[in-house]
Amino acid sequence: MEQNIGLMALVVGDYDDAIAFYTQKLQFDLVEDTRLSETKRWVVVKPKNSSGSGLLLAKADGQKQETYIGNQTGGRVFLFLHTDNFWRDFDYMKAAGVRFLDVPREEVYGTVVVFEDLYGNKWDLLEMKNGTS
User: Fold this and answer.
1) In this predicted structure, what is the pLDDT of residue 133?
2) How many CB atoms lie within 10 A of CB 73?
3) CATH architecture of 7-128
4) 51 or 67: which carries more pLDDT confidence?
5) What's the pTM value of the predicted model, to 2 decimals?
6) With contact defined as beta carbons under 8 Å apart, do 81 and 125 qualify?
7) φ and ψ at 128, to 5 degrees?
8) How far apart are CA 118 and CA 102, in angstroms?
9) With CB atoms counted within 10 Å of each terminal CB, which end of the chain scores lower, N or C?
10) Any idea what DSSP says for residue 74?
């Protein structure tokens, strides 16, 4: 049996703001943007050249969901953006105005730094060392 995680829903406040952040500041590809109703869209973004999982940008539907925007994991790092060139992506993201919460560091598993998306969700930008995942 073969399985994989296709999409992960990320609750956002506004579709267009989220698309702009992910495509411009993180250089993700906009894979799909389909209107489902007057208020809902099916919006999928993925890291450039990725054949793996993507993010379904899901606009909060009501006050309860709005409380989770930017804090879907209780303040922990939520998502891990793997890269084949840490410094290239770090420098681009920094110049694009992405907010980093600390300085890059070398760990046993690779080079890493924590950043926030436009809503405050924490991410790791991470270049793994060979042989680790």
Assistant:
1) 63
2) 11
3) Roll (3.10)
4) 67
5) 0.93
6) yes
7) -75, 145
8) 17
9) N
10) T
CA distance linking residue 58 with residue 8, whole number of Å: 10
Q: Would the CA dihedral through 106, 112, 116, 121 be positive or negative? A: negative
Residue 2 pLDDT exceeds 90: no
Q: Are 54 and 43 in contact (CB under 8 A)?
A: no
**What confidence tens digit (pLDDT) does each residue in 21-47 have?**
999 999 999 999 999 999 999 999 999
* Strand ranges inside the chain, DSSP E: 7-12, 29-35, 41-46, 54-59, 77-82, 99-100, 105-107, 110-116, 122-128
Please provide the size of the chain in residues: 133
pLDDT digits (tens, 9 = 90+) for 106-118: 999 999 999 999 9
The predicted pLDDT at position 97 comes to 98
> Phi, psi (5° rounding) for residue 85?
-150, 90
The 29-35 sheet, strands edge to edge: 7-12, 54-59, 41-46, 29-35
